[in-house]
Amino acid sequence: MSERDRQRLRAVIAAYGADARRWPAADRAALTEIAAAEDAAFDKAREIDLILSSASAPQDDERSMTRILQAIEADRRADDSKVLTFPAIGRPRSSISPWLTALPLAASLAIGFYFGARGTLDAILPAAIVGDVAAVGDDPSDLSGVSDMEELAGDDTT
Amino acid sequence: MAGTAAQTAVSDAELLAAVSRRDDKAFAELLRRHHGPVYRVAWRVTGGYEAEDIVQETFVKLWHNPAQVRDASLLRGWLMRVVSNAAIDRGRRRRPGSLDDAPDVPDGRPGAEITMERNSAARAVDGAMAQLPERQRLVLALVYFEGLSNIEAAAAMDSSVEAVESLLSRARRSLKQSLAGEWRGLLQSIAGDRA
Predict the structure, then answer these.
(1) What's the ipTM?
(2) Longest dimension (CA), chain B
């Protein structure tokens, strides 16, 4: 028996007592074989086991269980009383598909593009909408008003 | 939940699932199965004080949070950890006591009656155990009295296996030291009672 085995055996006996059935399963087989050499430690452990076995033990308390069940029942009742039930509010649902609702809007948009592109309605729309617009090829000085400078300088603005 | 005969065949896993659906009959069956060890651990750590409150706290926690037990096979370990923590917490808050002070006669509270074998040897041993630090009492309760493995006890105590074994050794050594003056007499008395 190595010193390490002896130390482990002593530690197990000191912790779990002399009864090998109480020892950790992983150690039990190996330690049982080398245990015979440790009679003194066993004797001491057996004495402590005997002393411990004489300690008082409470009996299972039926009234403790009843008390717990009553607490649970009270808790359940409290939970139930917290639940408020509201009458179901019927939300009106559309009888037609949302896509059908979108169809007229899409058709209006398409018609607007068509007439706008053809200029069919230009005669009845304001000039601000249908008049000339700036193009990429325009002289930047025209757009900035620089070309009007001489004309404006001749005006009597005082 | 059907009758008693059917309940014995129902696993803890099924009962836990039913408890999460607020089935109080399933909870009552779980309580019946696991109350004993939980109560004894609480009693041994608190010396009888507040054991019922601690046990109630433990099982009410299970009622509210059955999903905390991720695997029904770990239910006993979960209960042991909760009761251990609760017992240690309560013990720290109250004055240091002795099992001799514990109510061994009805004290007016429901469930306070505890039937105990009270011969002189038992009284001496109970008194010596009551003088142990709470964690030493707890480790004795879990490992020696309830038969938890070192791994289970370490999990219940949020500790390591090495720490559990060290605590056990110290508890047993302390017990012997505190009873040194009457050791031989106690051994003879106990052996005589059992002969």
Answers:
(1) 0.79
(2) 57
